[in-house]
Amino acid sequence: MNKIFLILFLISPSLAFSSNLNLPKIKGFNIVEKFKGDINDDKIEDMVVLYQGNNLQKIIKNKEDNLGSPEFNENERKIVVYLNKNNQLIKLAENPIAPEGSIESPCISDPYSGVVIKKNILQIIFNHWSSCGGWGTSLSSYIFKLDLTSNKLRLIGKEYSSFMRNTGEKEVISTNYLTGKEKTIVGLNEFEKTTEKPNVKWKNLDSNPILYFGNINFNH
Predict the structure, then answer these.
(1) Residue ranges of domains in the chain
(2) Which letter does DSSP use for residue 16 in this model?
(3) Over the stretch 118-127, which tens digit does the pLDDT of each residue have?
């Protein structure tokens, strides 16, 4: 099944990190991935961990021969952010994400794409790819920065791009939740350069509540 691959950034070697840290375990969950990077600008590497439930009854065999994966892992998943305090990992926040697969949507691939930590910015990245039922595919990056006043990871931006796999028609939307403005670019093409100048539109967000990692609906 096709996936959108990410280029992950190298973490600066000047950051301090102890290899002796005990990675927190959660009952009923397996550790799937872990990412290191400085989130709170103290020059010490923190940790972001992807956990997935390990209930075997939630791994469901696919009854459709020609649609989707052989099985679907419908176990709960969550991303947990830990700060490194005196070589102890202290949980800052956690946020659920969609399961790896669903028997109700057999054609849709795993939406989770990865985590990037760079320059004290945390990005959680998702993609939408369906092997049947439509030509559209998209990539969404949710951008967080630690608010030192509240000690919470605030959603400060979102980057979204989508294109049609048959025509290459592409749209890019950049949202800045700090300024309350959104930029949309249409008239792009994923497969070739267009001769016409892309159409760029700016707008003010109708609603711009302050959102924090922990209560984000990544499914939308």
Answers:
(1) 29-204
(2) B
(3) 999 999 999 9
